[in-house]
Specification:
This protein is an alpha+beta fold. The protein has one domain (55-195): Trna Endonuclease, Chain: A, domain 1 (3-Layer(aba) Sandwich), CATH 3.40.1350. It has seven helices and eight strands. The chain has helices spanning 5-22, 32-48, 129-133, 156-166, 175-182, 184-187, 192-195, and strands at residues 51-54, 63-67, 70-80, 82-84, 87-96, 106-112, 123-128, 146-152. It has a five-stranded mixed β-sheet with strand order 1-2-3-6-7. A three-stranded antiparallel β-sheet has the order 4-5-8. The longest helix is centred in the N-terminal third of the chain and has 18 residues, at 5-22. The radius of gyration is 17 Å and the shape is globular.
Length: 196
Amino acid sequence: MPYVKEDCEKAIKKIQQLYRTLKGIDFKPPNMIGSLGELLVMREMVTRGIDFEPAGGQVGYDITVTSKEGKQLVEVKTSTLKKWYGRQNYGWVVQRRGGRERKFDILLCAGIRDIETALNDPLFYIISGVQALKADSVTLDWVTSVEKKLNIFPELTDVEYVIDRLGKKDSMITKFDRKVNENLNEYENAWYHLTE
């Protein structure tokens, strides 16, 4: 079934409406932000003419893309803008500790600055699955559920600031985080990974 940009936008607006309705309530439906991110990704794929199909269910990836290379499995992760030691960043869990083995070809990280303006300014960082799954593990006593993750800071100087605040012994900012942040232009809107 071909997807229509307008249908994706209608669904995004419904999620935004639900979010506004629930503002001030501690409970938010699970995966509301994740669904918003997947819809933003699908809208972008429609706009770019990328042939795709949502995977559905718990299969370890979210979208199947068909390109010249054949089928690619795309895992979509979504983050809203957060503050960490006073510095803005996005954060995505790539793999949970003790979780099932992840099998995807592309990790597509969607960044949402503000849920209200998500249609206007989403960010997309596109990373090969091999690279993402080879990321070094987080080794902190207080982070027990996360095996691999990615944090992206809009300003590179904020990475060093957070590292200084955490101390050199802390592995919360991994080599993978540093590599991606130092080379953001290689990952931001790198849609060619899905069309090659």
